[in-house]
Specification:
Blueprint: E1 4-8, H1 17-28, E2 32-40, E3 45-50, E4 55-60, E5 71-77, H2 79-88, E6 96-105, E7 119-127, H3 131-134, H4 144-147, H5 159-166, H6 171-175
Antiparallel strand pairs: 1-5, 2-5, 2-6, 3-4, 6-7
Helix pairs in contact: 2-5
Organism: Pythium insidiosum
GO molecular function, one term: gamma-glutamylaminecyclotransferase activity
GO cellular component, one term: cytosol
């Protein structure tokens, strides 16, 4: 498996909608692996919930705005899963962009030989900034209580995303 580490802070965290729809199938096929929990080293970040569907969005604080470190989870993914995540996050449509950041681990990752306090470089998805984001209430962490209000724009997994993870998908598989 290609060692691409991805840090997730929202609906891709374990137990949440996009994890269950996309990451769990990748884990079951050996294409992804949960490693540990972590916290962004950068403290200039803001996590907000976009009003229309309560979608978590991360951006860098604007001048005069107070940012903070954001907690989340570290996964190792292969190139197919990384491509699927780029599709999910709308990278080609300039909805989110992916960047490498430093993550301080808060739990051990025995599979990677990491200990709490280690700092690793991970890919993370940032929302392409527009001024409306700064007007939203900041949340310190995306939790199950916040996730309860989340509404996916896709009731079932998209074929293009699943095809990256599991291969060609027919309509019956997509509904499962």
């Amino acid at each position: 498996m290609t060692d691409t580490f991805v840090f997730v802070y929202g609906t891709l965290k374990r137990g949440f909608f996009n994890f269950e729809s996309f990451v769990r199938p990748a884990i079951e096929r050996g294409k992804a692996e949960y490693l540990c929990d972590g916290l962004t080293v950068a403290s200039d970040l803001c996590l907000v919930l976009r009003k229309e569907r309560q979608v978590p969005a991360l951006y860098r604080a604007t001048p005069g705005e107070t940012g903070y470190r954001v907690p989340g989870e570290v996964f190792r993914v292969d190139a197919d899963v990384l491509k699927a995540l780029d599709i999910l996050e709308g990278v080609a449509e300039a909805n989110y962009y992916r960047e490498e950041v430093e993550i301080e681990l808060t739990t051990a990752a025995p599979a990677a030989g990491w200990a709490p306090g280690d700092v690793v470089r991970c890919q993370i998805y940032f929302k392409v900034f527009d001024a409306s984001l700064a007007a939203l209430d900041k949340v310190p962490e995306y939790t199950a209580a916040l996730h309860a209000a989340y509404s996916s724009r896709r009731g079932t997994p998209m074929r293009e995303i699943l095809a990256c993870i599991v291969g060609p998908v027919d309509s019956e598989q997509e509904q499962q």
